[in-house]
Each structure stands twice: as C-alpha cells, then as structure tokens.
Amino acid sequence: MKIRTGFVSNSSSSSFIIAVKQDQERYPCCGHKQNDIIDEICVVEKYGREDTYLHGKGLEDALGEFYHWEDEGSKEEKELVEEANKYIKEGFKIAAVEISYHNHELRDKIRNETIILWESE
C-alpha cells in the first residue's frame, strides 16, 4: 500500500514519475547537447514562473519524493521499480516532476515525449 507523503495535490499542478530517453545528439556547430524536458523543467523552476518543479532525478530519488511505501516490497512498488528499471536499461532517465496546469506546453511534452510511469490523480 502506498501513502502519499511528498506533494500536496491541488488544482494548480499534477505530479508525474517519468522516463525520458537520454539524447546523446549534439549540435554540429558547437558540440553542445540538446536540452531535454528535464532541462526545460529546471529552467521553469529556476525562474519561478509557475508551480513546476523537478523533485528527483534517478529512480531512488524519484520514488522517494513521491511515496513512503508502508509495506516495503509491496507488489505495487515492485511493479513500478521493475518497469522503471526496464527503461533505465534502454537508456532512459527517471525523474519525479510536478507540472503546473497552466503550462500547457510542458504538459503536452510530458504526454508526447516521455513515458509516464506514474501520475497523480
């Protein structure tokens, strides 16, 4: 059984645990890596425009930010960890994020450019 302890769910944002493909593609002119959605969320968070935050990077941090597992080793926890580990092996990054309902662009990117492992209701 999971008990929500980390984020206050309200009408201004949704929380997600996502898997993001690590893109190694670099700009040919300068060699810099292209930003991914996690980088974009960090910029929005830094400039405080909305209720948008990166709460944890990596599987352990992402899970720790969202849940305290009442029954450690529960079926639900194991399934989420197994699914996340499958994507990690395929080259994905795992992150816990909170996206403002007002940021339609980032919400669309979450839905179209990432794999959602968990979403707040």
Features of this protein?
121 residues; four-stranded antiparallel beta sheet; 4 helices; alpha+beta
pLDDT below 50 for ≥5 consecutive residues: which ranges? Answer: 1-8
Instruction: Please tell me the total number of domains.
Output: 1
DSSP E strands, number: 6
Strand content: 25-35%
Quick one: overall form? globular
Q: Give, in order, the helices and strands.
A: EEHEHEHEHE
Our measurement of the CA-to-CA distance between the termini, rounded to an integer number of angstroms, reads: 16 Å
Radius of gyration: 15 Å
Q: What is the helical fraction, as a range of percent? A: 25-40%
Oligomer: single chain
Number of helices: 4
Average per-residue pLDDT, rounded, comes to 79
Structural class: alpha+beta
* Main sheet overview: 4 strands, antiparallel
Identify the strand order in the major beta sheet: 3-5-2-6
